[in-house]
Amino acid sequence: MFRRFVVAVMLIAAAAMPASANTSRIKDLVDVEGIRENQLIGYGLVVGLNGTGDTLNNSPFTRQSIQSMMERLGVNTRGMNLRTANVAAVMVTANLPPFSTQGTRIDVKVSAMGDARSLQGGELLVTPLVGADGEVYAVGQGAVAISGFQAEGQAARVTRGVPTVGRVSNGAIVEREVTFAINRMASIRLALRNPDLTTARRIAAAINDFIGAPTAEPTDPGTINLKVPARFEGNIVALLTEIEQLRVQPDQVAKVVIDEASGIIVMGKDVRVSTVAVAQGNLTVTISERPQVSQPNPLARGRTVVTPQTQIQAQEDGRGLAVVSEGVSLQELVDGLNALGIGPRDLIAILQAIKSAGALQAEIEVH
Prior knowledge:
By secondary structure, the chain is α+β, with helices and mostly antiparallel strands. 16% of the residues lie in helices and 37% in strands. The chain has a six-stranded antiparallel barrel. Strands 1-18-17-27 form a four-stranded mixed sheet, covered by helices on one side. A hairpin with a 2-residue loop joins strand 14 and strand 15 (223-227). The chain is flat. It starts with 7 loop residues before the first strand and ends with a strand.
């Protein structure tokens, strides 16, 4: 039954392939210190909704925001009974790209906070977006576009997607720049996206071979310290442009990743097993109910009763032991387990049992 919705993903590397086919650019393996996004957040109001906004009695923060906004515009609404349903309080989030200059535009995401049913047709009012330091880095405003919708009548409702989350394309203008003088740095750090000792050493060796001097040194599995050579002083952009195109063969830890919820299994190419025998069997119990209705004869003094009838069947599907040889490759391991005719759910249990027996030379990571 689980085979209908379970996907087993196997990453298999053929030994006959040349080593160059497995290389990657340094650009795809590391992040450069300082070249990063910054997260922004803000609180605002979306107006113009067609009766799908917050219920003010259930969302006091929306009521207070409306009153504060109207007071700033010279309208006093204190003590009045507000009953509008065309306004929704929202949280506005955005990512500030690295080296963004003043006046550039970025996208913002809008998410309802109260009990608004939909943000369709709404307009985000001016919303300051602050960073982790509390400073305003951008200001957002614009029409909200949503991907979902909701339609309802007196007896039915249809909802598709999430109509309470929307996006304003180019909806924020950058007002403050994040200062970072990369060209003045005497050394930079490269952070590996997948920390590994072997990969870090190979990247440093490739950089040193290109520069012709020992300028790169791995300080830990996830960091490489790069001293700027004399000929690249004041022009680190040119240095990084040359380095990021170098190709390196990354290494990885033998790992089996298992997602218990969805049944997804991912195996690395370096997964190996020692000699082990595997047997698998399933016990299937089927219970069927067929109630029978018993009625009295015409004009008889009786009553109609329901007589339950239950049928129970138990069947055990057992398979013999299958031997998995020592040091087999991932392809041979998959073929041997598939020969048992088992599904991904049983495969998860078998892999965990092989690991418990000490025969699986890999790390198992369960989500």
